[in-house]
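Sequence in, structure out. First:
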Amino acid sequence: PVTDGSRELHSLCAQLEFLLQFDLKEKRSFFGQRKDYWDFLCQGLTRCRQEHEGIHFVTSLDKLKTPVGRGRAFLRYCLVHRQLAESLQLCLLDPESLCEWYYARSPFLSPKRRAEILGSLYELDCVTFHLAL
């Protein structure tokens, strides 16, 4: 199993975060806080489902104060529970929402690249992750 000490885990999470932040439009909350991929994921999953367990778990963690911290915790939760590909796929279903959150260079706006990314993420479902959440 992959654990917190794994170099590959850190590289994987960095690449995932890079993909989710690449060409992300700058948005701000009502109070001026910069929105990040965490906000995109929340909006996408809320639109598709009543409640995602990962979002509920992450929002219950009082120590997490920033959208980036919440996003990282959500990625780890999804890896442990083998939900990353499915969760991201649900967020990528709505082309209007994608255009609202991402500029044209984002790989998520290319059907071919999106399929490649999701295919790779579904392969991660075979990997066991034992991470501290």
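Second:
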Amino acid sequence: MNTTLPESKVGLLDLEVNNLTKILFLFVVVLSSVMVIMKGLDANWYRYLMRFVLLFSYIIPISLRVNLDMAKLFFSWLIGRDKNIPDTVVRSSTIPEELGRISYLLSDKTGTLTKNEMIFKKIHLGSVSFSGEFNDVAMHIESAYSGKLGRHSFSVKLQTAVEAIALCHNVTPIEENGKVDYQAASPDEVALVEWTESIGVRLAFRDLASIELQLNNGNRKRFQILHMFPFTSESKRMGIILKVSLNIYLLLE
């Protein structure tokens, strides 16, 4: 349907008036033809046909169209001033006269009518899981960024998982009036970023070339974006390739 040209939206009353006008015009033509035949056909028969069409043209209610348009404007004005439905704005003059014909009103419940609030509840790493306030996760992250632990310790592994969550998304931080707000196409991605911020890894900056994470210890960690794999219905996931120092990472959401 998107490849076809959209049809002009016309009210049912307008369609009925148009059909009535066509029928009356055909009736006038037939009546004029009958009158010409009764008079007798000659070399000037077409002139008499046009004369009879003009004589019988009053049968076609041309003034009805003007009256209908004036009535539509009047109905729109009344709806806009109705005290029972305040702040109503009529944006089309072809709708008011159709309101009396409505028997059923079907509406689709979409995400635009609701507010989806996603909350990160639980993280599971192999044999260990965390949920609730995530205070233990914040402590592990703080220990990992202190630089005193080995690269194979659990805290460092948890730090890697949290960074993956904080980096693999399409969220962009926007600062307005001193407050940072996250913008994304999906609320679940915003929930992931808000969770990493709550445990000490905040998404501070993002553009087409890089991502920066703000840590609780005051340091910033910058990642270069090498490539983005957008979410598709076939892959059911998105991905990103990042570079930090000499290391290159592929993250999949």
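Remark: The two ends are 33 Å apart (CA to CA).
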